[in-house]
Amino acid sequence: SKLLEVKDLHLKIEDAEILKGMEFSLEKGEVFALIGPNGCGKSTLAYTLMGINNYHPQKGEMIFKGEKINDLKINERAKKGITLAWQEPARYQGVTVREFLALGLKSKGEEVTEEKLKDALNKVAINPYQYLNRFVDKSLSGGERKRIELASLILMHPELIILDEPDSGVDVVALNNIADMISYFKESGSGILLITHSEEMLKYADQAALVCEGEIIRQGNPSDISEYFKSFCYPCAKEEECET
Ligand code: ADP
Ligand code: MG
Ligand code: MG
Prior knowledge:
By secondary structure, the chain is α/β, with parallel strands linked by helices.
């Protein structure tokens, strides 16, 4: 059975229609990639699925493990096992890596141990001895914050994980970590919604869909979607619009 089903999802912000009937589903242990150019509504979809304030769909359904979640609050969705890794990982003034990771464990009602924290950091190739007492603020690079955020996700063992452009602002080394992380979550049975605007990321996906202006215009196996995405003058243009 499906882990997540999104049906005819519509969202307006003020008078602008941002999501226009988004529809797809994903299963446990599956990596489903949504690829699309900047501004097509990918992050908006991520916020809507997570239940961020003011991102309430006007129409359509979001169904998680058979249950409609449209009216659940963000923390209720988190408790059910849905997590979002932000496009821009947050900075927390005055919060150490240790405290930040402990929050992830506590949010699941789990005991905080040094062992668990170290283990999660090691999985993202961050040396616990050097980083546990650092602050999660601008003293860390974007790539480091991204990896620390991934470590916190490991501790939350989500059932559904939404990765919003995990490759943005990240160096090649961290990129390998993201690839490892995707396989790690997949093997542990999580479903992954992989949001990206680079076709490079599609090689990690089982299924892919191309999003244009708030809707999916094509869905299929990742290599076909990748070819389609690359072969267009502009990813969302119709074939005839590309002729010169
Ligand atoms: P993507 O993540 O695919 O780059 P976004 O979801 O961030 O796209 O944005 C989709 C569209 O919605 C853009 O045109 C953006 O300007 C608009 N948008 C996003 N958030 C808001 C907001 N809070 N208020 C008004 N417009 C917004
Ligand atoms: Mg963007
Ligand atoms: Mg975005």
